[in-house]
Amino acid sequence: MSVPLVAIVGQPNVGKSSLFNRFMKKRLAVVDKEPGVTRDRNYGVCDWNGVEFRLVDTGGLVPESKNQMEKLIYDQTAFAINEADLVLLVLDTRLGLDNIDMRIARDILKAGLECILVANKVDSEKFDLDIYDFLKLGLGEPIPVSATVGRGIGELLDEVVARLPRQENDNAVEAGVIRVALVGRPNVGKSSYINKLLGEERLIVSPMAGTTRDSVDTPFEYNGQKYILIDTAGLRRKYKVVENIEFYTNLRAEKAIEDCDVAIVLTDAVDGVTTQDQRIMSQVLENRRAAVLAVNKWDLIEKDERTADENSVVIKSRLAKFAYLPIIYISALTGQRIDKVMDLVNRVYENNHRRIATAPLNEFLAEVFARRKPPAKQRKYIQMKYITQTECAPPTFIIFTNHPRLVDKSYISYLSNQLRARYDFEGVPIRIKFRQK
Known about the structure:
Elements: E1 5-10, H1 16-24, E2 42-48, E3 51-57, H2 68-83, E4 86-92, H3 99-111, E5 115-120, E6 143-144, H4 153-163, E7 178-184, H5 190-198, E8 216-222, E9 225-231, H6 245-258, E10 262-268, H7 275-286, E11 290-296, H8 307-318, E12 327-329, H9 338-352, H10 358-371, E13 384-391, E14 396-401, H11 409-423, E15 431-436
Parallel strand pairs: 1-3, 1-4, 4-5, 5-6, 7-9, 7-10, 10-11, 11-12, 14-15
Antiparallel strand pairs: 2-3, 8-9, 13-14
């Protein structure tokens, strides 16, 4: 199912990041009185009354600025706007309307985009009448809110959900087909991998980073199993990409990850695991997708029979929270282990859809609880009473306990690791929820 994208845009310091944090119910974006603090984009998946949508917080728009950073932010934000299903144009009610707001509104109208005007900083009723000056923008009636105190946020979210395109399950028509996303940094070999797998030059391959610009879904069959391979792109509208390839890569990877059943995360054996690799893997984890870590360009590494094992130890020590991902060493150039990646994809897909009966689960819980008990908190002893699996893809477990809020993260990690070891959930994120018993 494709999740709609909502972009928050506006001038610097109108409260975009505060609104983003309010929607996400946590402080993810940096908020500061100094304008221009948001330079990198912030992403998140927001849920309102059971409806999910992606949210992107953009930098402050300053059209036709001579400042290099402001020009870069403007280009990035214009890209996000063109990708969005819905735009929230945030305006500062205290300052009122100006020429920059008019210019941004013209750009949105010219692109024919769905837009909601958000009149921010309406902290009380005495500012309510100040919002009607924004009607001159021609984008409809503004919704008054205060991102700081939370006024009007529920009404705004209701309107956002009402204006989103209807979500349809794209995979329903393709029963039995596994959707596989190829994600990774520019030039790690994603398109080369697909071409080698298909045995043809289906996708453009170039040593220049960022060659893949448009969304490419490639049907493929291997050993009787049907797949759709999603090369990391995700541009629904053509847009000129000129700078900051990392920003565009992240946005594309996010879309591809959301649309897939299993993600193949490609890294470069020569470069090792980079910060951007970790960021992309974090996107996989946040979207709760099954995944395989494929280390490409293995043919360029001098090695002996111990090199792969030693390299895996290094990777897993650097990527502790992704240690559940299976690692495979490949070469898209020579074809080394290309087909074995698909065997791993099948395995983690099956793991992701595994359902465990309640009786053996409770035997398991009694055993691991006896082996290690959670530490007491606030002089209260925590008992694990009962466990059941409620969902697959990803496997989700509910544990009934006497003090659900006192279970610490280290004990949750312990339970997750024990579940993986017992029931083979390799490559799969596990969710454990606690309920009062």
